[in-house]
């Protein structure tokens, strides 16, 4: 496994790159740092420098201000409206007035519906019509009606969801007091009051809260799927003077800030209030989609509402999704149109010649119309268009919709995809994409909340060289299976915390193991966790769930963190409380990968506690430190089990040493330039010669069944890419934990990828232009060496590789200079033109697709969507995206199928998804069972549907050779009307709904069964033409065998049954038998319902036919019912029954023989499994009895991930004292308004 990293001038792996969404001011700042080459020659014209202006203005408590003409934008012609969005959201498509016209417009955009409408118009014209108008009108009305009802039901569900959100209540300040308004009535500039557990209705500037310094905790699960709390702070100026309703009502500040955008990690603005300007940043903002936690009341000013909010801006463009089969089906319908026109034209020409040669000369055919042969041929053409219209089956689309609806219901009803713990069933939120689930080639998954539960558990530790965490008795006897520790001896313990090693608990309680006690004392003291006492319980608020897990572990082992002030920490050590003076808090950052705290003990000793990544702690250990090797061995074991490790150490400091260091620390704190670097240098001086205590191991708990699901999907040849906003090392570690990455893989990072792509690009530039432009892609692989490869690439490198950042910077710089873009120099790393940029993207996609695994980390929501779009565009592959937060919405909408994880705290992803369920492991059942079945059923349905309609329609073609090409129909009119609606629809519908080649367990056991769907092997043009030729063959037999039987025949009663009506009855009866028995041969899974449908369809045909041919109905309606007595007359002749039997037998015998040969000589994977079904079922029962072995990776390799995943903590907040409640008397004159809380990293946006 390659883990070699080279230093390069590439992008920072820790930074979240918002290349396409960067505001111009920040790009200007970054581009100014780059030296610009001044062109020689004539001097540049002077460029007028324009002051940077904030484009968005919000006036507090002043609704009319936002309706001023300067804030109006043109909507249509002279109609204008305010540029500030309303707070209501609209996801529905129709209202009462627009439903009928809009729905009909959408339905008639389907070529088939438009074709049948034109056909209906033709049938009204007397000279052309060969069939009554109702034969087309009835099926068309049924199709349009069923589709309209389905669309209406879907849209009503969207109306309900929008109404539920828009009608949520919120307190808004109006007319000097708070009034309860619905969300949809909130406007920009309103002051709102939010209470604990309220959803935040808009993007709001925090003014004040009930906590000290306007400290407000928010849960961002809707945005990023994380449940650990983040804190936000109001400005000190507003916090001190915005506590009373009267003060809030008098608030009249003007906010100038950035335009609405999709950047979740950035906000820039200023507040102008009473001739003072106050800077605003993201720490002051409460974003829509978050929830207020642990804060009784807070007040805020609405800055962005509705569609302008960041969460809505991140939702991406809603795309109309269609399946590959839909597209193929449309092309096939176009093919049928062409065939229809050609056949009708040929028969029309035949009619012209026939009329010239025979029609004109036969006196008995004279119809009294003096029309030329050409004109009669023209009329015949339109007549045949009407007669042969059933080649394009009108009921095809409505049948497809019914099947999809049924398949969606089966997904909703699947109890094996129901998550009982949170009462969350699977939900198919669309009914149009089911068969596409059986064709997925690429899955793009989020990490946090999708693969992981975002729950950290303290699993194991090593203290003084001894490992703990396996099931062990109090005496130290190792067990195969133990029971969790009973924490009843500790009143402050978290009852949910589970630990299996009783020996460690016994050692800590005995007080004899000083190292063990020091280990947990460090965990209880060295952190930035905030504590809240709620109803006698301790509630910890941590910057990351990892820290919360460690402090909770110390709490259960008897070292309970109780409270903290600006300069003290109080803990309970077993039975007595101790307060430690905090002299310095050296917080974590991504470069240091460690944090330290310097404490003064009650007895006057000064000690430094430090915890961090093993790589940085080991570099700073004292030569006298013990247990390095044994701890290292335990770290390898923990890393091998994919646990997140963290080394703990301490150092005793003399008073003189601390005072000398403290002076340097204070100097660094007030440094005017490069303060962070100065502080890091001072920290280095004290964090040395450490003594190792041990190491902790935390499990970033995966969702149940994630490794098994990924392994199963990989066997189905589905590639899984992880796209996450998390840090690289954390994402990589999860990749190992879920078996996406393995030790035998060669991992390639951003700089390596960039180098390979640059070499390929340089080679292409060196080729002659004619060859270069002709070759779309290189045949050479990027990784010619044998073995598995994986890509781990950050968002910064992704921009670098795809030229995103360079493109924007270059464009901006040229705009500032007032110039056009010159042609790029091949040596400057810029794309020479759009073709080269496209080739670079193709190269990247090709390289990624050569790999077994791809992990993209530190990527923005827009980048997630772009990566999915690249694979769709250049691989023409069917893609699926799965996520649980608002940051996943873009890729969910971009992919062919979007899946949302429901049951978590966030529901934004679910609202934008096509399918939703509670656990990642259900994905394999959705694809390998429901998806595969849906695909097989739909393909079988379509093949059969085209066949039965060709067989039905082409009988007219053969009949035309015997009726002078006069467009006369073979069948009775009512048979043509009811054939697709009643006589042949039910059996094929049931096959489309219920058929299965193997059961669900076999589908999961043999993932290779999924491959035909990816290859599109079951429905393509080859299958279409097979159905066509099968239909031609059957139509020949259906017409010519009865024709031959009727030729010069005498019945038993001496009457000749060779009349037209008897022929129509025999051909129709033969057709109904053949198509219903043919679907019986194609049915793999028989139920009572299938059997009933086949027999019932035949019975319905005879029942309706005898009724229509009865004398009674002819007396009531003489014009439409003209086949009086035809059925009873024809079917009482045994000779004709023999003809029907012979026709059916000759039609089905070749099909039976071909199916037998295929299953015997060329069996499919499904056929082979079906043969050995009993043996496989017995094997599966045996496997279920066996206990699966615990997950282990094959080779030990150390990966410390905790310190990399850790986000910056609350150190600045703690050391500033702003989290400590101040006395009322402290609230006096105005204080500094500019906070010194630095911008924290956006963890896992």
Automatic annotation (TrEMBL):
Keywords, comma-separated and alphabetical: ATP-binding, Cell membrane, Cell projection, Endoplasmic reticulum, Golgi apparatus, Magnesium, Membrane, Metal-binding, Nucleotide-binding, Translocase, Transmembrane, Transmembrane helix
GO MF annotations in UniProt: ATP binding; ATP hydrolysis activity; flippase activity; magnesium ion binding; phospholipid transporter activity
Enzyme class: translocase
Stretches assigned to the P-type ATPase N-terminal domain: 60-137
Region of interest called Disordered, as start-end residue ranges on this chain: 1-49, 1177-1199, 1215-1245
Highest taxon of the lineage: Eukaryota
Residues annotated to bind Mg(2+): 446, 448, 884, 888
Keyword hit for Phosphoprotein: no
Requisite cofactors: Mg(2+)
Keyword tRNA processing (UniProt): no
Stretches with biased composition (Acidic residues): 10-39
Subcellular location: Apical cell membrane; Cell membrane; Cell projection; Endoplasmic reticulum
Annotated positions binding ATP: 446-448, 547, 588, 611, 644, 724-726, 858, 864, 887-888
E.C. designation(s): 7.6.2.1
Membrane topology of the entry: Multi-pass membrane protein
Basic and acidic residues composition-biased segments: 1177-1194, 1233-1245
UniProt xrefs under PANTHER family: PHOSPHOLIPID-TRANSPORTING ATPASE IC (PTHR24092:SF48), PROBABLE PHOSPHOLIPID-TRANSPORTING ATPASE (PTHR24092)
Family listed: Belongs to the cation transport ATPase (P-type) (TC 3.A.3) family. Type IV subfamily.
Name of the protein in question: Phospholipid-transporting ATPase
Organism per entry: Zoarces viviparus (Viviparous eelpout)
The organism's taxonomic lineage, starting at the top: Eukaryota, Metazoa, Chordata, Craniata, Vertebrata
